[in-house]
Amino acid sequence: MVTRAMALGCGAALPRRLVTNADLAERVDTSDDWIRKRTGITQRYIADADELTSVLGQRAAQAALDMAGVPADSVDLIVCATSTPDETFPSTATRIQAGLGSTRGAAFDVQAVCSGFVYALSLADNFIRVGQARSALVIGAETFSRILDWEDRGTCVLFGDGAGALYLEGREGEGTTEDRGVISTHLYSDGRFHDALYVDGGPSSTKTVGHLRMEGREVFRHAVVRMSEAVDTALEVNGLTPADIDWLVPHQANRRIIEAMGKRLNLPDERVVVTVDKHANTSAASIPLALCEAVDDGRIQPGDMILMEAMGGGFTWGSALLRW
Ligand code: ACO
């Protein structure tokens, strides 16, 4: 018998303000047509000043707890994946913990940019597997609008704000891929690619928050290759084939990247969860937001095998298999 981290609840939170491509075209030299064709994005939600990363994260976490029917003070571990924390310290996770009204367990942040949710999920899964935690909240929460250069049309049109959360609880399983819960996670990074995607600020380097800088083509070139490797490993290690996957829930950066991954796995479009059109790229929040949408609308059912994959600044990348 092994302990599996079973997913019992998920939650999502989006800011109030919806910003369309047409709205952006009034601000920078771009067009709805260019953004749709290159990325599939039609709109995004942008946080107002009072909608901090922790505020969105707390809303998503509370919704996940409500779905699971468990009180916040029963949670052993809160891991928040974010690259846009409220403050340099303390962690956004501890602010969420306080907001939820919990004073027990451990709370901390994980920073792996767009791969952050997969990294946080892996951490929580390992805590539960070894018995250091029985339950965990895994949150991806971001306000990337705060680190965008709103004069740079090459990047400001790509991102949005939001948060998603997953509540996990340890359950005994047979140790096979038929068990419900997290089956495996695979994480990777290669710091040589810093210059392709980074923020040109930080407390140690410039004392400013800085702005996101990206070589879009370079990121695009690596994304499908790296994520494919991570997905192939996940399938191989578990003795699975693409035919065993019910849902691909990918990081939502760009419709073209998502479609390329779907094709590679030979999955029909209706088995790939896409939210990038409505949310744009919400970095660490994008996978749990997409997961939550497909759970809420009934597409994902208990027992379904879900494959998640992501790539982000660092570069970091990874995959996760979860039987819902
Ligand atoms: N509106 C209109 N024109 C634009 C815009 C815009 N918003 N942005 C750039 N352009 C112009 C450029 O100036 C350039 O013009 P030029 O030919 O006159 O010089 C032209 O469009 C082409 O620019 P490219 O950057 O070469 O366009 P490309 O086809 O590579 O598309 C994009 C850019 C959408 C960023 C693409 O490279 C991409 O999706 N890359 C992946 C990046 C990504 O997803 N990053 C997210 C973070 S990492 C992750 O989540 C995986």
Summarize the structure.
The protein has 324 residues and is an alpha/beta fold. The chain has ten helices and 13 strands.
What would your notes on this structure say?
- By secondary structure, the chain is an alpha/beta fold.
- It has 2 domains: 2-173, Thiolase/Chalcone synthase (Peroxisomal Thiolase, Chain A, domain 1); 181-323, Peroxisomal Thiolase, Chain A, domain 1 (3-Layer(aba) Sandwich).
- Helices cover 32% and strands 27% of the residues.
- It contains 10 helices and 13 strands.
- α4 (92-100) links the parallel β4 (77-81) and β5 (106-110).
- α3 crosses α4 (92-100).
- The longest helix has 22 residues, at 216-237.
- It is globular, with a radius of gyration of 18 Å.
- The model has no long low-confidence stretch (mean pLDDT 97).
- Bound molecules: acetyl coenzyme *A.
- The site of acetyl coenzyme *A has 23 residues, from α2, α6, α7 and β12.
- The site of acetyl coenzyme *A (ACO) has 23 residues, from α2, α6, α7 and β12.
Which SSEs are present, and which pair or pack?
Blueprint: E1 2-13, E2 17-20, H1 21-25, H2 32-39, E3 43-46, H3 53-68, E4 77-81, H4 92-100, E5 106-110, H5 116-130, E6 135-143, H6 153-156, E7 161-173, E8 181-189, E9 197-199, E10 212-214, H7 216-237, E11 247-250, H8 255-264, H9 276-279, H10 286-296, E12 305-312, E13 316-323
Parallel strand pairs: 4-5, 4-6, 11-12
Antiparallel strand pairs: 1-7, 2-3, 6-7, 8-13, 9-10, 12-13
Helix pairs in contact: 3-4, 7-8
The chain binds acetyl coenzyme *A.
Structure keywords:
alpha/beta; globular; Peroxisomal Thiolase, Chain A, domain 1; four-stranded mixed β-sheet; binds acetyl coenzyme *A; 2 domains; 13 strands
